[in-house]
Amino acid sequence: MSDSAEEEFTEGPATPADAVEASTEVFVGHRELLFSIVYNLLGSVADTEDVLQETWLSWSGKKSRSPRQEIENPRAYLVRIAVNHALARKDAITRRRETYVGPWLPEPLITKTAEEPTPDVAEQALRTESVSMAMMVVLETLTPLERAVFVLHEVFGYAHTEIAGILERSPSAVRQLAHRARAHVQARRPRYETTPQVQQEVTERFVAAALGGDLDALMEMLAPEVTMWTDGGGKVRTAGLRPVSGRDKVCRMLAGYAERAPKDIDVHYRHVNGDASAVVFSEESPYAVIVMDLTPGGDQVRGIYAVTNPDKLARVRSGPDGEE
């Protein structure tokens, strides 16, 4: 069955009750995909959940108005609704960002390892379609339409003709958006892959050096052009108000953090947006999520993303698997 955005209808369930049950089952079956697409467009779990609620209302309203009609391609229809609700919400998010204190980072999603069960929709979505924290930061520099085209095409594999139907744009316009978005992303983040083992090993060495105040080890690990983003949302005094670049400056910042850090720090190594990362707790409460972005060779750290805003850590749990 083609995944185009055209609405085609066939005979549906015989009663309104049957229609509600069937439409609910269809929506739940696609919720994982919708969550992943919308989160990659917005970078906020709360906003993503709101968009999914709006999508459900649009979907269930359509179904209740036409109880004997069945949408032949519900996946395409739901994706179109969700993407357009997300784009409509993007303006409000942009206005919020204008008054945000300090650097803004996406809300981290803590995921389990491949061997662990993943009952949570967010974890299931990110298991198959993970966009790293570093890539999410780059995506923030695209226009909303460029980001939508890039995410749908590069991450989820939609054809340009399918995206044209979703966004109600011509295929040629979508191709132009895709070209601009791809060039923009490539200029800021050339494609390469670091193995999970290297990511984990470097992250553990970095955290040990940073918390231990080992400046020599940090200087060796950090790339000369390293940049550190600290997202405290104006609610954490130690968080920087702007990104810090350069090995010496980042080292000094990390040394200051080590001196002011709580004494009861407990570090868990988990996957954040698909990457091996450090989740730091103090008295079993989330203190920070730290994600490393490595150089193409994987031997040095070129980006450090530290989320300390308590609002963005509200879903982080201290249990062995990230659960209470």
TrEMBL record:
Keyword Flavoprotein included in the entry's annotation: no
Spell out the coiled coil positions from the record.
none
Per UniProt, what is one Pfam family of this protein?
Answer: Sigma70_r2
Q: Is Isomerase set as a keyword in this record? A: no
What keywords is this UniProt entry annotated with?
A: Sigma factor, Transcription, Transcription regulation
Q: What's this protein's family per the entry?
A: Belongs to the sigma-70 factor family. ECF subfamily.
Question: Quaternary form?
Answer: Interacts transiently with the RNA polymerase catalytic core formed by RpoA, RpoB, RpoC and RpoZ (2 alpha, 1 beta, 1 beta' and 1 omega subunit) to form the RNA polymerase holoenzyme that can initiate transcription.
Q: What is this protein called?
A: RNA polymerase sigma factor SigJ
Q: State which gene encodes it.
A: sigJ
